[in-house]
Write a structure and sequence with these properties.
By secondary structure, the protein is of the alpha/beta class. The protein has one domain: TIM Barrel (Alpha-Beta Barrel), CATH 3.20.20.210. Helices cover 49% and strands 11% of the residues. Strands 1-4-5-6-7-8-9 form a 7-stranded parallel β-sheet. The relative contact order is 0.14.
Length: 349
Amino acid sequence: MMLKNDLLLRAARGEDTERTPVWLMRQAGRILPQYRALRGRLSGFKELVETPELAAEVTIQPVDALDVDAAIIFSDILVVPEAMGLTYEMVEARGPLFPETIQNAHDVARMRIADPEEHLGYVLEAIRVTKRGLNGRVPLIGFAGAPWTILAYMVEGHGSKTFSKARRLLYTEPALAHELLRKITATTIAYLQAQVEAGANLIQVFDSWAGILPPHHYHEFSTRYIREICEALPGVPVTVFAKGAFFAVPEFATLPCRTIGLDWNEDPQTVRAVVGESKTLQGNLDPCALYGTPEQVQHATIQMLRRFGPQRHIANLGHGVYPDTNPDNVKVFIETVKEFSTLAREGQI
């Protein structure tokens, strides 16, 4: 099916675009009242993720409400460890919780390399339902967590400021860490390939806890596995978003991915100087900038666009949009990107 709006795909491939495409991480979620209304009728987050028709409805909501240039499938990175045999719970106001964790070699041995259709079929069906619902309006982004971030949750059991249990494993039992990372990577590759087969047009790899590792550990326990994932998806644009991993930008420049996502602490011009023109950059407005007045949001957005320049940029936030953000300010951000970047392309600014 031909896409009516392929701006995101063209920008990811490095082609000239008439304006900068824009979408937001976590755009399908609590900022939208229609999402909250639907979620309120259900038993919880997991019911929504695991019901393809409902996940598809939530995925499409921001396309209707915000007029973004892409949809991202409504799911969670933690479906992967669950598919491997480690069940998670989503505790309201606390986040993810694993009742059991990976503590030793026996625990790693009992983790399976998941079969996408058997163990993650509900996500693949949600992608298929979403594609039918979108009817070619915008591209659909599929995603997964980077292996290090998934390991961090499987070992720690919950979110953490330090992930000291997971990081301890890298120092005390590096071979065991690699064994688990290999299983996670194999599962993730098969899962993402299945997402593409189901209809995902782009893939994003989220390394949410990249920034808590020292550079030598990030190279050994994360980048090498992200590289394997990128190499396994040659036919689709891949975005690598590694929060806090500013030190890894030179290595990211060598990855076979199309786009590098920047958090709000990274300077686009500095990153561009390192990676050259070979990559598209995505980001990176501070999510808290959306708490300002509409005029302040507009100003911050324009400043961001000027730093990235008119080409090879996908506008986004430097992290997911926060749930208490005013949707009207999100609309100001999106409209400013569209209007300013169009005028910039036409040489009127």
